[in-house]
Amino acid sequence: MAEVLTCYVCGNVGFDDGSNGFFYCMRCGSQAEDIVETGDDQEAVDLIGTGHGSVYSSYFLRQKPAAPQNNMVSPLSQFWSSLAHDNAAAKKDQACVADTDVTGPTGPSDFGSGLDESRPLCYDDYYSEIRIRYVMGIQLMIQLQCQASVETFGVTELVCGLAASLWFRYVVMSGVFDDNWADETIRESEIQKSDHLRPVSPILSTTGEAQNASNVRYKEEPRNIHGQRAVLIWLKSLRRSIPIHCSLVISFLACHIARSRVLPTDIIKWSLEGNLPYFSAFIEIEKVIGQPSKACPISSISMFRPSEFPSLQNFETLTASLGQSLGLDLPPVNFHAISTCYLNQLFLPSEKIMPYACKMYEWLMPPELWLSTNESRLPTRVGVMSILVVSIRILYNINGLGIWESSLSTGRKLESETAELLSNLEARYDEIAPKYEYSKDLATYLQFCKDVVFAGVKPSLENHEEEKIIESLWDYYEKEDCPLLAEGGIQQKRSRSNERFSNNFPDRNKKIRDNNETPRTLNYEHRKSEETKKEKAIGRLKLDMEEHMFYYMPPRKRVTKPDYFVYERKLDEGALTYIADADYYILLRACARVVQIDVRVMHDAVSRIERRLAWIEKRINYCLHLKHPAMSCDFCSNVAPVHGTDDSCSSH
Fold it and tell me: Which of 38, 62, 89, 601 is deepest in the core (most CB within 10 A)?
């Protein structure tokens, strides 16, 4: 099989004839250095038998020199070969294409040699390898995240192409591939004040003084005037220009442009669970691009393991800043898809609420639904949920009427939809909380720590004693059952203690049974227990309101007309006081938990929507009742103007 030739710049297989004796890459247009086309004169070929033929003939080919037995491979060529041939199937397909390719030759490569593989590494080799390895590693991380979003979470495949376009523009904007990037980075590190760093004296290999082990190991690397390793300086600059968390930002920005219902809470949750490659992505990256070479003496875990995680508050700000720097006109969030998802999480009927919510959205078009670079502005998901809260209040008449308190009494059972809605929200408050997969049980959590938290961590002992201890403990955990955690063990112990406590007072129990025999006492105790149950439920709600700095407001009395009740804040001793009734607080608390925001922030967002709606209604009412002034214009008045005598008219 002919030798497969790849471009030394982009790694592409296949060259095109330039009609000038040279061949050029079909992807990037780089000229092949070791391939030259030769031609023959047909008349000279015919005269070969007479002894007058041309010196250069197709019958007189040079023998292909034997390949030198050298195990040392250029770091850059090794990196690109690993990208071009990431698996055996790709190698086979590329070889078949090369054999049948008629646009360019596939061998031999005896007209020139590439880089001298036996020469020592130079300054350019170090920064070129570190830069290309880091950039391609982040690109692979984005590719893995988009692939996981499509395959695991059902996101549209459009995000893959959008993420690629955004990534290429972002790399160009970062300037890490500028010609003077490496020199400028070293110069900036030398100019900056490094008082917190201890200067390292230059290494002198001819002296017999004791040297640091790390300095001896990396003595051939370039350094700045302060003795700092240049490879670490370049890596720090790369992380500052292209941070690792930009992979998550670009993935979310692609989903946002594709009008997907993916939110920052979803991106962060998926990455924390390990379903979206982020913390342990360096393992897959190393499988594709291979082990670090001599020109890049930095491990993959040190290069691609994130040391920080973007907060939920700043995630949208980072996304908006990236879109603004790329010159994008970003659309608003997909209100319909996100609202439907939120209603499903709240166990509410979307077919009833969504028509009113969509009308309100189209009427208002609040600016909170656009991504903003302002860190103090409310997130977009809060703006979506605030519209839903106002719609639910209007549809179900949640205006401080005490419907939830009335539903607690058995004598006043309410069959209305509002009472059912509030009861379901109060009962399922714990179910709507965001749950992570690794919190199911201990086995799942330990597996999560093994695959994500401590991914790539190797045992500290060379004799693998630590691995044996871990395996033995894991086998013991899977085979043995803890008696204290056995099913029913704690409950049985508790039931036995309760039985022992009841047996200590037999006369008291008998007396209680005797007293409960009369019907009047039975009704009284039943009514008293119901009142106690209601008081306990209201008491628990008051405690929860106090934890979130809300004050309980009793139900409204003597309601003259059913109107929309607005909850206002008051300034009490320099602090804002939040007052709400039970109906509104139960709805507000559940919605705030779904969007993972504080209850007070959710209340502020709802108040903004209510004020904007009130202002629009006021302006519309003013315009509808606006009276036109008296018309004084001759063209607009209905009264015919009085003109003088006309000769033409008088003649008739």
Answer: 601
- DSSP E strands, 592-635: none
Nearest to 162 by CA among 87, 257, 24: 257
* Region 449-460 average pLDDT: 80
Q: What gap in Å lies between CA 555 and CA 562, rounded to an integer?
A: 14
Fill in the DSSP letter of residue 65. Answer: P
Residue-wise pLDDT for 493-508, tens only, equals 444 444 443 444 444 4
Local structure of residue 556 (DSSP, 8 states): P
pTM for this entry: 0.70
Phi then psi for 456, rounded to 5 degrees? Answer: 80, 0
DSSP assignment string, 345-400: HTT--HHHHHHHHHHHHHHH--GGGS--S-TTSPPHHHHHHHHHHHHHHHHHT-SS
Can you read off the two tokens belonging to residue 496?
Answer: 């036995």
Question: Using an 8 Å Cβ cutoff, are 308 and 268 in contact?
Answer: no
SS3 (DSSP) at 32: strand
> What is the Cα–Cα distance from 310 to 375, expressed in whole angstroms?
13
CA distances from 421 to 387, 392, 415, 561 (A): 18, 10, 11, 23
Q: Are 380 and 369 in contact (CB under 8 A)?
A: yes
Burial of 508: CB neighbours in 10 Å, binned 0-12, 13-18, 19+: exposed
Residue 108 preceded by cis peptide, ω within 30: yes
Q: How far apart, in whole angstroms, are the C-alpha atoms of residue 36 and residue 105?
A: 9
| 157, 205 contact by CB (below 8 A) | no
Which of helix, strand or coil describes residue 445? helix
**How far is it, in rounded angstroms, from Cα 242 to Cα 377?**
25
> For 305-338, what is each residue's pLDDT tens digit?
998 888 888 999 999 999 999 999 999 999 999 9
**CA nearest neighbour of 75 among 27, 17, 119, 109:** 119
CA 587 – CA 450 distance, rounded (Å)? 40
Provide the 8-state DSSP code for 552: E
Give the number of C-alpha atoms closer than 13 A to the C-alpha of residue 439, restricted to the C-beta side. Answer: 6
Tell me the two tokens of residue 228: 């700092």
Helices (H), 258-349: 264-273, 281-289, 300-304, 312-325, 335-345
Q: Which long-range contacts (CB under 8 A, 24 or more apart) does 365-369 make?
A: 365/332, 366/608, 366/609, 366/612, 368/605, 368/608, 369/332, 369/333, 369/335
